[in-house]
Design goal:
The chain is α/β, with parallel strands linked by helices and 233 residues long. Helices cover 42% and strands 12% of the residues. Strand 2, helix 2 and strand 3 form a beta-alpha-beta unit.
């Protein structure tokens, strides 16, 4: 059987790192791409992604998208805008609040832009697939994290790439707890990942991404790891 090859879209966070590690079981990862669109956590994300790629001997490129930073009004980029804050126990209590949070951190067409660029790299390298780390939990608020989004883009890629590059997502049907359990099974060093929206010395502990990770961690382990304790709970 012919070995398949893939490009990974790697943010350096929990979901994309687990997805890439799972994909390595059936595909050779020929390149990982990390995107810098001026987000607060860009330096931290890039460093985390580089660390994983060095550990697993995967080539890594950083794609800079300064134009995306200029056109967006997201709190992920504009530091004068406040990021929504959550306690881990507040998640799932208010759909309206979580929808407002999603709007606050929305970047115009971001995932489509990322995947179009990744598809161009995949086609140029004759890679069969693009690996992404979406999850079912966040797909409820972010439609561009959903299985339907992946299916729709895969239809588009049959027309836009000669080798019919396909997007694959090993974590698409998992929630954050499932993904964290898988990270433990795969012996991924959680301390070396970066999933926080902020770019400080340590994760803030109170952005929505940190809150989701904390909630999952509280289910799996009796104590929250030290690197997630900075935020007020």
């Amino acid at each position: 059987m012919k070995e398949t090859s893939a490009i990974a879209v790697l943010s350096g966070g929990l979901d994309s790192t687990v997805a890439m590690k799972l994909a390595r079981k059936s595909s050779r990862i020929v390149l990982a791409l990390t995107f810098d669109y001026g987000q607060r956590a860009a330096k931290k994300e890039i460093a985390a992604a580089q660390g994983s790629c060095q550990k697993w001997d995967i080539p890594h490129n950083v794609i800079e998208l300064p134009w995306l930073a200029k056109i967006t009004h997201t709190a992920l980029v504009q530091k004068e805008r406040k990021l929504p804050k959550f306690n881990a126990t507040e998640l799932g209590q208010s759909k309206d609040r979580e929808q407002k949070s999603a709007i606050a951190v929305w970047v115009p067409n971001r995932n489509s832009v990322f995947l179009a660029i990744a598809a161009a790299h995949a086609e140029a390298l004759a890679a069969d697939a693009i690996v992404v780390g979406f999850n079912a939990e966040e797909a409820a608020a972010f439609p561009d994290n959903s299985i339907d989004f992946i299916k729709t883009l895969n239809q588009t890629l049959t027309f836009s790439t000669q080798n019919k590059v396909k997007i694959i997502c090993p974590t698409a049907e998992m929630n954050k707890i499932d993904i964290l359990k898988k990270a433990v099974e795969l012996d991924i060093d959680l301390e070396k990942l970066w999933s926080c929206y902020e770019g400080g010395e340590k994760p803030c502990g109170v952005c929505e991404s940190c809150a989701r990770t904390k909630r999952a961690m509280q289910v799996i382990t009796p104590h929250t790891p030290s690197h997630l304790k900075r935020g007020k709970q």
